């Protein structure tokens, strides 16, 4: 197992304010902050990118889908690239060239392996639900066996990849700071709105704590 | 030119509340709503996914980066997959299986073509800046020739791809609606914070309208 996360030169984003972060804590914190990810895979030499949700358990990252999914069938036992990117702001500079975005991103490479054991698969899916909504899974109607069969869980070791983070303001050419041009950052936030109960909820069913306190 | 956008079965996301949208208006509205995208490409059979910003002009989508970028050099004249995915909410159902996300996504396939003509490239980059911040480009310090040379702009025709949209609440099994389980939607919004001026802005430089009214 390669414990050292490899530094890649795959991103064009490295600029002055940017730092490559290759330690597990940096990578994990970005994975844990945003479940939405993009999984890249290859079919007959053609690149495909599928948005899906990822969740992390220790040094592995997982995602799931229908067992019939073309994306999952073609990712299984194949080389994939999993990318999480969070937009934190727009950086407005004094020249077009130095405009940028503040962002956090992780790119992981590896072989996607299917979780074969049904009990392990169920545990992974329960961790997925509970990772977003602590304690929710145990209160749900138990999964039907046929639904589990129709679901594929893929996992990948977090062993090759990198995190990239850009923060802060614009980084202009020294002579451009004298120009009367507004420069700065427009922050971008992801926020969670008021929960919308299903009209078919049973009267009086309480809003669970994992809904009331949900944050992204 | 293929004016009919092809329906693909590449996404596993199609469920009851979901509709595939294959008309230009649906695809364009999603591309225009979120500049962050993921570009998938292949190097030596290995899939790569790079987050970047896209912008649209008519029936073409563009993205850019350093001319030295491995991502761009390997995408040029090659088959790529460009994906935009917007998370609109978490859908909490009465079983794990029916949990979902509300989202809008576009997946485009095609060959990435470099914008060769320097004047056209400059125009594309100006449209990129002005697309986000109307009128900003004309007020900036003009781009240096060497900076333009160091920048590559790639474009792709929007001719093969699909949009997928899921909205609404959970879609549970009929017998599960009798269960005393809270189900519903937790909406997710992207919002823009108060602009943060660069401390080195010239005293009294006004905050432009394109900053004050910026929305995502």
Automatic annotation (TrEMBL), chains A, B:
SUPFAM superfamilies registered for this protein in UniProt: FMN-binding split barrel
Annotated coiled-coil segments of the chain: none
Domain of life of the organism encoding this protein: Bacteria
Protein name, UniProt field: Putative flavin-nucleotide-binding protein
């Amino acid at each position: 197992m390669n414990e050292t996360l490899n530094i890649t030169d795959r991103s064009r984003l490295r600029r002055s304010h940017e730092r490559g972060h290759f330690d597990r804590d940096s990578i994990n914190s970005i994975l844990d902050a945003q479940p939405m990810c993009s999984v890249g895979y290859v079919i007959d030499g053609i690149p495909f990118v599928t948005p899906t949700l990822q969740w992390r358990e220790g040094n592995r990252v997982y995602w799931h889908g229908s067992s019939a999914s073309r994306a999952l069938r073609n990712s299984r036992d194949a080389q994939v690239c999993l990318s999480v990117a969070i937009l934190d702001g727009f950086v407005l500079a004094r020249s077009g060239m130095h405009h940028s975005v503040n962002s956090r991103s992780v790119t992981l490479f590896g072989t996607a392996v299917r979780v074969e054991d049904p009990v392990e698969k169920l545990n992974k899916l329960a961790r997925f639900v509970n990772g977003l909504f602590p304690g929710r899974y145990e209160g749900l109607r138990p999964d039907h066996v046929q639904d589990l069969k129709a679901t594929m869980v893929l996992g990948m070791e977090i062993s090759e990849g990198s995190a990239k983070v850009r923060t802060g303001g614009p980084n202009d050419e020294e002579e451009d700071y004298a120009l009367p041009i507004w420069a700065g950052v427009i922050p971008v936030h992801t926020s969670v709105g008021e929960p919308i109960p299903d009209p078919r909820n049973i009267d009086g069913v309480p809003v669970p704590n994992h809904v009331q306190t949900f944050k992204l």
